[in-house]
Amino acid sequence: MAFIKEESEDVKIEETFTVKQEDLQEQTDLIEENEESKEEEHHVKIEEKNNLQTDDILKRRDKNHFTCTQCGKSFGRKTNLKIHMRIHTGEKPFTCNQCGKSFNQSSNLYTHMMIHTGEKPFKCTQCGKSFNRSSDLHQHMRIHTGEKPFTCTQCGKSFYCSSHLHQHMRIHTGEKPFTCSQCGKSFSQSSNFKQHMRIHTGEKPFTCTQCGKSFSQ
To answer: Are residues 89 and 74 in the same domain?
Structure first.
């Protein structure tokens, strides 16, 4: 009988332990589920916040878009649109007090003034040649690097500056925008036009150092 009683008590202890284990597991599952729910809620809040921030940025971008009514070009600042509009209106409020030439931007006037002052702050590290504009130095550097980013779509010939490509394209288009007012002859390049004009003016700027004879070219 003592053995049966002892076995019965062991069964009760085991059942109690099993119930407690089940309760503990259930509580653990609830805690994990609650934590997962909180984590998911946290991610949702972050995503909603990011979406709101993105919407806010887009709204501000739309609000800050200043568009030209003439050509449709857009700007982030009203002042940039105002400067751009001078291209269409022809307004040039910045005038050189040395020669009277006018410009639509103060920065262009500042660069122009260097012609009068002789200032050339941008110097080539390869050959020492100086320029009054950083863009001119950048273009000049291509002579040393061999870079020719402007390519003719007709024949594939490349150039280190866009103006040379523009001049070259006249070979293909047949355009001759420089016309002599004396004889009506036209030229595709201004240098050829200037050279031609010396026939009419009689100018001979090239002089021989040996005999003193002068030539027009």
So the answer is: yes
Residues 115 and 72 in one domain: yes
Q: Note the helical H segments in the chain.
A: 2-63, 78-89, 106-117, 134-145, 162-173, 190-201
How many other CB atoms are found less than 10 A from the CB of residue 128?
A: 7
Short-list 167, 206, 203, CA closest to 194: 203
Question: Can you tell me whether residue 115 is helix, strand or coil?
Answer: helix
The partner residues of 102 in beta bridges, in order of sequence, read 95
Q: Tell me, yes or no, if the pTM score tops 0.70.
A: no
Rg over CA atoms, the chain: 41
Return the sign of the alpha-carbon dihedral for residues 129, 130, 131, 134: positive
**105 found inside a domain:** yes
The pair of structure tokens assigned to 37 is 């729910």
For residue 14, which phi and psi values (nearest 5 degrees)?
-65, -40
Of 214, 178, 210, whose CA–CA distance to 197 is shortest? 178
Residue-wise pLDDT tens digits, 21-55: 555 555 555 555 555 555 555 555 555 555 555 55
Q: What is the CATH number of the domain that holds 160?
A: 3.30.160.60
